[in-house]
């Protein structure tokens, strides 16, 4: 049964300071028949991931109530977690409520049907079984082998069963696999135990929080009920994403209340993927990204506007619209990579305002920079024209290109359902001259040029080709990106890249002028670390000869 879709726009607000809302769905909780064990677990785990939980709500099993609560939370916070209401019975209506929140219809997911048949060992599913296979159209589904429940996400809403052991295992699995992304912030917490009466501390703590209000320091005070203690004790917490603010606040608190402080303990609630701000002694970071995100080994456009992704073990299905939404959601995050993405998408949006979809092509040779740009270009194109136009790729070959690059260009063309214009020429200039004759309607070329590239320091996001060259508008959306920015996005979005980058190549030209980067040479003779492990971006072209 389809849910009548409400006609309205959905605009997720992922830039709301990494905030989260937890929605517990179930009449049994409200009636006191079942204890809610999920909220405290989720609050603790989300904090570790860098999310500040702003609200925990417990609501009835009613479609309209679920829709209203989910929509309000999803449009004002970075992340929403729902728990409960996913079973086969009449009062399990979470999916219907979420579908209505986003103005979508429920659809029967063939992959879920197949997995349910396997799980229940039957070729004929009854209506209660099929109910569990109906999900909103934009749902991203990941069902790892051997797991009881799939991982489900609609936009920025992550959907879990209400049974605590299944919710916990699902949440931890989503965290481990990168299905649930971490924030790029860490909460720093200091706990101070004082021998004092809470009322005697009130004035000092109020002054302390006011003094650090611009640095978002949170000061908490909690009486301790310890019958073994001779005097009354209070636990004071100092917390902020600004570690220095916590230390400075502790110093002031210690100066004022040193006589009654019994114990001080720092805790670092680790969350987001961290890129080192200072160069380490080695050019290789062995632990970069380990345990945070995994490279996806496959990514394919299917029929009916659906994508299939796989990482060697698990298959994830998603609608094309959901992937487009993911790109724009991440671009609204208040993070470094979010700001980089927004700048690039703004440039592409400006380009599509100036030129029609058939007047722009993307220069694509399989390199890492244009691979990132293709993903953004694909999203921006379909955001504007709703999948009515295919990206046009321009591949100019000269010299002796690596066969791996040639193969990757073909795979990417298929993966993103592109139209490929291939020009075999003596140089880029002659290839553009050929393009001018064969495709005179093309007026602009999007390029993956960055500031550190040859000639990158003399251009802007929009620059006409140099004198003596065929006249095109060069569009450089990722001009201000760094080497690490490119790899952060490739791995964050699990975008497949050419296999040469896993063999130590960091900047790829032709076979006669490119070799693995010596800065990535492994202790094992003849082996090199992957390109994403290079921490010194200035050595990116060290493999060019």
Structure explained in plain terms:
The protein is α/β, with parallel strands linked by helices and 545 residues long. The chain has 15 helices and 21 strands. The strands form four sheets. Strands 2-1-3-8-7-6-15-14-13 form a nine-stranded mixed beta sheet, with helices on both faces. Strand 7 and strand 8 form a beta hairpin. Helix 3 crosses helix 4, helix 11 packs across helix 12 and helix 12 crosses helix 15. The protein is globular and about 85 Å long. The N and C termini lie far apart (63 Å).
Give unreliable regions as ranges: 1-16, 269-298
What is the number of helical segments per DSSP (H or I, 4+ residues)?
15
Give the oligomeric state of the chains in this entry, treating copies of one chain as homo and distinct chains as hetero.
single chain
Task: Tell me the β content.
Answer: 15-25%
What's the rounded overall pLDDT mean?
84
Structural class: alpha/beta
Largest sheet: 9 strands, mixed
- Percentage of residues in helical conformation: 25-40%
Number of strands: 21
Distance between the termini: 63 Å
Nearest-angstrom radius of gyration?
27 Å
Which shape, going by the Cα principal axes? globular
Main sheet: which strands, in order across? 2-1-3-8-7-6-15-14-13
Can you lay out the helices and strands and say which pair or pack?
Elements: E1 19-25, H1 27-30, H2 38-48, E2 52-59, H3 63-76, E3 79-83, H4 94-101, E4 106-108, H5 110-120, H6 127-131, E5 134-136, E6 140-142, E7 151-154, E8 157-160, H7 164-177, E9 187-195, H8 198-211, E10 218-224, E11 233-240, H9 243-257, E12 261-269, E13 298-302, E14 306-310, E15 315-319, H10 320-331, H11 336-354, E16 360-363, H12 368-385, E17 392-397, H13 403-415, E18 419-424, H14 428-438, E19 444-446, E20 462-464, E21 473-475, H15 483-492
Parallel strand pairs: 1-2, 1-3, 3-8, 16-17, 16-19, 17-18, 19-21
Antiparallel strand pairs: 4-5, 6-7, 6-15, 7-8, 9-11, 9-12, 10-11, 13-14, 14-15, 20-21
Helix pairs in contact: 3-4, 10-11, 10-12, 11-12, 12-15
